[in-house]
Amino acid sequence: MGEEPLVRWDWIGRNWPEIQELLADHVIMALVPVVVGLLLALPLGLAGARWRWLYQPTVGTMNVIYSLPSLAVFIVLIPITGLATRATIIVPLTFYAMAVLIPAVVDGLTSVPDHVRQSAVAMGFTPLRRLLRVELPIAVPVVLAGLRVATVSSISLVSVGALVGRGGLGYLFIDGWQRQFPTPIVVGVVLTAILAAVADLLLVVAQRWLTPWSTARSRVREAA
Amino acid sequence: MITFDGVTKRYPDGTVAVDDLSLEVPTGEITVFVGPSGCGKTTSLRMINRMIDPSGGRILLDGVDVTTIDPPTLRRGIGYVIQQAGLFPHRKIVDNVATVPYLLGWDKKKARDRAMELLERVGLDLRLAGRYPFQLSGGQQQRVGVARALAADPPVLLMDEPFSAVDPIVRASLQEELLRLQAELNKTIVFVTHDIDEAIKLGDRVAVLRVGGRLAQLADPATLLAEPADDFVREFLGRDRGIRRLSFVPGDGLRLRGDLTVPASAEVSSVRGTAEAWLVVVDDDGGPLGWIAPKDLPDSGTLAGVPAAPYGTFVKGRDSLRSALDAALLSPSGNAIAVDGSGRVVGVATREALDEALARVADGARG
């Protein structure tokens, strides 16, 4: 590398359209698994909270999947979903998201205090209405905390996909490494970090907006 | 009226929570279920709104078997107050109170107006309406719980140890508040507690239950204290049963003396000749200032300049013999000052008068 500067701004300028494309690809591959993972985790989490015996096997299975190295899973999937396709990345990341989100949904639902649930029953809520109007809203802070973890880790894991030809901003690492040229690596790292920070911030804002009763509570605690 | 007709609750593992319970909860009265843990009092309460279904017998609500009514419909017509209030943490106070009106499909404006009216009625600052439950104290939350139970104006109110999680001072004020509300509303209330003092204070009738879910005695509080049905009830009522009974004897029967009162503006010399050991000094409005002893008065001046000894009062026509006795014990004279509703002295119950009244009570206990 020697006399090469850390960042060459002219390279960024020339390659900006390509960088934008990689960024968009990264966002899609990181967020689709989180959204799909949440949609799948809700019914599974509800079942886990309703029938406790289901909870341990489900979470156990998910933890085993979570422990598999992402690169190995990508490689195993190539014959099915194809080399360098989005699906090869999205499918495993969806399972990773679920591994975080299912326990979050179950914990969120079990965080509903018993006296609150019982008073809902005694007021005359039907079971479905109780779930939608009382239990799920109270579970939101815990689920959102899980969603933040799942989102940030998903954004970071997409880069690994570069090793099987589809890694969004991760491509810039490989490119920079192969050419002994630091600028793409720096761009990739900075954009990934910004992406994660922005996504996390949006979730924090969503949490404040969705659960004023909970953010106010944490502010009171901080003040105390 | 709520009728328990041979109600039994037996669980699959053989535990019997309630055993052949038959009693009537009269309309417009507070009936308290009291007993040690495991006596089935909460189970009995929850069978009324079908949070638990009986395994034998029937519960009738104004003649209709509750098991023939769809549970959510039944419950929306029965107010329920739970220990720790059970407020919804994610809803503002006003919306918590409006819960049942919302479930009944009232429009939002009407439901919220009704909620505000109830918050006022249970003595809460209306500025709390827009807050969330965690911003309220335990006592305030419990008042909200009561307001919520009353929101749709149900004829029946079930209260499951509603005041046991708050400190004793707040509990006492919540109890007073409930009695005040009940005087206005005349609901049919079933109140569950493990605290016999609370039961005696609140109940028009008290059902004492024993472990295993059997009814030991059902009576009004005065009868319960005077004539416990058996050793279990006697023991459960605890110590001081005789003294506590005095709470149910009106102080009206006390003979009052009107000649022991002197105005503060009177000269010292005007009372020096009296044979009485103690006199009550009253201000211009007739309110008590305290006791003076004529034998150790200064040589001259008015009584206003004489330091007066402490005193206790009871309200004639409202307070019990127990309050009068308490008032007497707070005075060095051993006499109780009777006042009217606005605090003016109407007479003095001397130790002799108290003694006569206590003798009458003790005489009654013989029969």
TrEMBL record, chain A:
Keywords: Membrane, Transmembrane, Transmembrane helix, Transport. The keyword Membrane applies. It is a multi-pass membrane protein. Residues 23-202 form the ABC transmembrane type-1 domain. Pfam families: BPD_transp_1. Coiled coil: none annotated. One of its GO terms (cellular component) is plasma membrane. The chain crosses the membrane at residues 27-51, 63-83, 89-110, 155-174, 186-210. One of its GO terms (biological process) is glycine betaine transport. It is found in: Cell membrane; Membrane. InterPro entries: ABC_transp_perm/SBD (IPR051204), MetI-like (IPR000515), MetI-like_sf (IPR035906). PROSITE patterns: ABC_TM1 (PS50928). It comes from the Bacteria. The keyword Transcription does not apply. Belongs to the binding-protein-dependent transport system permease family. This is ABC transporter permease. It comes from Planobispora takensis. The lineage of its organism: Bacteria, Bacillati, Actinomycetota, Actinomycetes, Streptosporangiales.
From TrEMBL, chain B:
Keywords: ATP-binding, Nucleotide-binding, Transport. It comes from the Bacteria. Residues 2-237 form the ABC transporter domain. PROSITE patterns: ABC_TRANSPORTER_1, ABC_TRANSPORTER_2. Transmembrane segments: none annotated. Its EC number is 7.6.2.9. Pfam families: ABC_tran. It is an enzyme of class 7 (translocase). The keyword ATP-binding applies. GO terms for molecular function: ABC-type quaternary ammonium compound transporting activity; ATP binding; ATP hydrolysis activity. SUPFAM superfamilies: CBS-domain pair, P-loop containing nucleoside triphosphate hydrolases. InterPro entries: AAA+_ATPase (IPR003593), ABC_transporter-like_ATP-bd (IPR003439), ABC_transporter-like_CS (IPR017871), CBS_dom_sf (IPR046342), P-loop_NTPase (IPR027417). Belongs to the ABC transporter superfamily. This is ABC-type quaternary amine transporter.
